[in-house]
Amino acid sequence: MSKKLDPRVARTRQMLRDALVELIHEEGYEKITVQDITKRAGLNRATFYLHYRDKLDLLSQSCEEILHDLVESMNASLAETESFDFMSGQPHDTFIHLFEQISFNSRLYKVFLTEKNMSHFTSRMMELMIDFVAKGMKNLQPDDEKLAVNRDIAVRYFAAAFLGVITWWLEKDMPYTPKFMATQLMRIGTRGPYIEDPFVK
Amino acid sequence: MSKKLDPRVARTRQMLRDALVELIHEEGYEKITVQDITKRAGLNRATFYLHYRDKLDLLSQSCEEILHDLVESMNASLAETESFDFMSGQPHDTFIHLFEQISFNSRLYKVFLTEKNMSHFTSRMMELMIDFVAKGMKNLQPDDEKLAVNRDIAVRYFAAAFLGVITWWLEKDMPYTPKFMATQLMRIGTRGPYIEDPFVK
DNA sequence: AACACTAATCAACATCATGTCAATAAAACG
DNA sequence: CGTTTTATTGACATGATGTTGATTAGTGTT
């Protein structure tokens, strides 16, 4: 299937992508130009256009590459676990793998999720989370009648919440382990944030 | 304090802001230029620079204006309600006012929250939600020891969840009333999404 | 109505990033 | 080795930017 890539091509693309990530971190995606990227990469500007249409194309391809790995990792662990004991107090493996996979590429995820003007990546990531949550909820409770809220609302609610917490975790430079984070998310999502329910006297 | 604004100035700024919103909706924020904006507004390009530094400055000022109204509305209803019965099944007024205020300016909120490359607005909105959630949680449970999860995580979790649902609501052209949406958010946040808790046999 | 004042228009300008091209040099491959 | 592919270089037209100075139009004050 995949022809072996000319080493010059692989090297050039990697240098451009590394330069992109660095520059987004330093100056923000909006401010950087194709000139900046090629200069930082030590390449000629014309070389850029041999590989990418424009700045967005470079970003877009970098996004898809990294998200492809994440989807594969999560689908793998979803397929593994057919039944799951929610009373064990243990987080679902898929949650752990989510945080682990992100920590493997934390440099890139941090830049792509926390820097400004990265909506191309964040919206792709949100799509991914929505899909993930929708599948999880469908497994757990396929009957809409037994939901206390509109399913679409609930899906978006949890997808956004998870992505928000992931972003927080990266902003703070991952102060907790993937397992701890997964546990917190499971707990708050199913039990709410309070130990003693303040709504019941 | 505030001198009466020259009607030419007010008119010009309004035309520029209207043109901005229209064009973001039609072509996306990234693609539009100062030329496009002034052309749509029927103004000379030089006039733009009499009022704003660049495209971002125009966007930024439009954001602050609209968010100022939202903050005021929510602070007002926060101040009114000192005690609140969470068992009433009624949503807190602040939640309702949140959705109502957004529905008053739904055209602008929809464009600013759902179009791509609007992270300047979405991150300001997220800050606002974080502040709102942090205050609400502090009132409800000031003691960290009685939280099942890290407070910062919980704050980000709910702020992101709320903003996600608001965005969904605007994407779908507000299919439910503000009161209904507020009720759904209260319910899912405190009780979880399931009528019968599937985690307890 | 005439006045001074401010805002908007217009044409012009230098600057900069873009995307493309043809010619050339360098590296990879068989 | 020679052939093919890739990267470099300098050049070019294009289009948006931000600014300027001179002019016209609108505001509101006396």
Structure description:
Chains A, B: This is TetR family transcriptional regulator. Chains A, B: Keywords: DNA-binding, Membrane, Transmembrane, Transmembrane helix. The structure is a homodimer of 201-residue chains. The first copy, chain A, is built from nine helices and no strands. Chain A has 201 residues and is mainly alpha-helical. Chain A has two domains: 52 residues, Arc Repressor Mutant, subunit A; 136 residues, Tetracycline Repressor, domain 2 (Orthogonal Bundle). Chain A is elongated, with a radius of gyration of 20 Å. The model of chain A has no long low-confidence stretch (mean pLDDT 91). The interface between A and B is large, with 51 and 51 residues. The structure holds a DNA duplex (30 and 30 nucleotides).
